[in-house]
Amino acid sequence: MNKLAPVRAAYVSPAAKRHPADGSTLIVRDLSRATAVWLAKCLNQPGYSRLLLLGSGTLDRVGIKALESLRLPAAPPEMDGLSARLRDALDEQALTSEGMHFVRAEANEFACAGAAMSCSVRGGAFFAREAVNCESWLPTATALRAEQNSLAEDLGWAAIAELASWDDRSRLTQAHDGARVLRLRDVSEDLFVAPGDDAGEAAIPSRALAKPLVPGEVLISTLGSSFRTAYVDDAVPRNTFPADAWVRARFRETPAAWALLLSTDALRSQAARLAVGTVQQFVPPEALRSLRVPVPPREVRDRWQRAVERHHAQRRTQDHKWDALMAEMNAVFEAAHRPFAERRPRAREAAQ
Question: What share of the chain in percent tops pLDDT 90?
Answer without folding.
Answer: 52
